[in-house]
Amino acid sequence: MEPIVKKWYDSLERGKIMGTKCKDCGNVDFPPISVCRKCRSRNLEQIELSGEGTLLMYSVSGDTPGAKFAPFTPFAYGQVLLKEGPLFATKIEGVPINTPEEIEKGNKELPAPVKAKIIDGVGGMKVVVFEKI
Amino acid sequence: MAKNPCIIGVGMTKFGNLLETPELKNKTFQELVAEAAFEAYDDAGISPEEIDAFIVGNMLPQTSLSNSQATNCSDWLGLRYKPGFHIDTACSTTLTGIGIARDMIASGKYKNILVVGGEITNSYPDMENDFPLDRKPLDRVKLWKWTDYAVDHNYAYQHFYGFDALIGVFGLAYMKTIGLSFKEFDRIMMQINKNVRLHASMNPKAICYEDGTLEEEAKREGFSSVEDYWKSDKNPFIAWPVRKKSVLNYADGASAIVLSSEPKKFTKKMPVEILGYHWAAENWPWDGSSEKIAFEGAYKMAGIKPKDIDYLTVHDCFQSAYLTSSEIAGYLEPGKAWKAILDGRTRFDGDKPMDTSGGRHGVGHAFEASAGAETYEIVKQMRGEAGKRQIKKPLKIAVQHNAGYALHYAVTVYKTAK
To answer: Which parts of the sequence belong to the ChsH2 rubredoxin-like zinc ribbon domain (chain A) (predicted)?
Structure first.
């Protein structure tokens, strides 16, 4: 089996957001994984994703785990349904987070379209976040 | 006569903090699990000689100073030369162990099995000599770093994952599904916590026992109303819309369960039969389907319907589970769990009792000991031995639901045996 995780982070370095598509049932998983989550087939291909998705809801980071993401806090953390089908959760940009009232109001405006963005995460490692359009 | 293996004995330590709680102070991991096991042996009227096998749960070797826990615990449990092993499904572990023990007994090779779980979450040995009694307080950052090994590190942990934000999203999901405003949700969460603390105030083994009810605590803190206390800076958001008091309290402790195929040989107490169980695991990013699968599998094996359930325990390390899991279980009407809670129906004296021990906030959460502590409560309730918090109606069928981090759902169906 080829290394899957390393290949994914390497492709982020090149600005590409990849997923796996099942050649048997057509299901798309994100990020790439060894076996199709839907039909359990190993017959997968790597595909580039559109980066388009829908933000379903978001909350705001609290005090755990704390240290690791300290340079980023406070940040919104939300659930995104990708255009190709899979669910993902990560940092969300472009949504209000300063007060409980703002967060409640922000959530009332959902679902709303978001676009993937590659940023420098902890230690400068490339990771995927979503930005409200 | 019960058709299935039965629980004949239960035990648990006080849940608290090894550095502070008088009942726990200066004890090691092996002493904690032995104390819980001895109570279970005595409760069952069984001697260790008659235990045929044992299963040990423990998640954090960094605090227990133990892996290969079965070998580390065998002699302390009085089980030298007996077959034993360690299992780990995080916070559902002891319930998973009960399912394994049930099937080991059903295979015919074993008659009596001990399932024990222990955890230390508040302190760890930080000295070079790794001596279990040289302990220092464990800060939350380090605790979660170790606990989060239960979460995907290939992707999730690099993508801003944190337990707090996750429970914020879980709470929000219920709010959105039902169409509740934050104000309504907050009021419901306060009522849940009032129930949790009421139950814990009647349970001497609970970490919150000495603190009394939420109303008593509010008064002590100088608040004239419990609502003002709930909304004050004493109860900040852990992740909006969920406040600090709506999640677990970290605890140290142990629990133990003895299962047997021949209850009458040892005890006159009412045996609790394991009618059925099911487990389901899923990895991040979760869609939560495993929860429903676990309930359905357990009901099918047990041959019961949700309407047969007299008592339900849900995994409440985040208390929005009282809303979501009770509905998925079919115990409370879909979309109406919030109303049942506001009407007091889920209290020990209501018609739909839930988590009468005080749960993972009230009793406290000692990760791989907690499911066993919930089984302990179920057995005490089914026998009518729960004291002040005894459910008044007779209990025939009880269901226990646990979520191992992250995620391993386990559901077990119990029945009072004759």
So the answer is: 12-45
Under CATH, what is the fold of the domain A50-133?
A: OB fold (Dihydrolipoamide Acetyltransferase, E2P) (2.40.50)
Q: What ipTM does the predicted assembly reach?
A: 0.96
Fill in the DSSP letter of residue B264.
G
CA B81 – CA B232 distance, rounded (Å): 55
Return d(Cα B61, Cα B119) in angstroms, integer: 9
Instruction: Please answer yes or no on whether A61 and B160 come within 8 Å at the CB atom.
Output: yes
Q: Is A47 on the interface with B (CB under 8 A)?
A: no
Q: Which distant-in-sequence residues (6+ apart) come within 8 Å of B88 by Cβ?
A: B57, B58, B59, B368
Instruction: Kindly list the residues from chain B whose CB atom is less than 8 angstroms away from the CB atom of residue A87.
Output: 285, 287
pTM of the model: 0.97
Residue from the list A64, A107, A129 with its beta carbon closest to the beta carbon of B164: A64
A5-22 pLDDT, tens per residue? 999 999 999 999 999 999
Q: How far is B294 from chain A (nearest CA, A)?
A: 18
Domain with residue B259: its CATH number is: 3.40.47.10
Determine the number of helices (DSSP H) and then strands (DSSP E) in chain B. 14, 13
Which residues, 6+ apart, have CB-to-CB distance to B133 below 8 Å?
B26, B28, B125
- Tally A–B CB contacts below 8 A: 110
Domain parsing of chain A, residue ranges: 1-49, 50-133
Q: Residue A65 and residue B240: Cβ atoms within 8 Å? A: no
CA–CA gap between residue B380 and residue A77 (Å, rounded):
41
Dihedral (C-alpha) B75, B81, B86, B92: value to the nearest 10 degrees?
-80
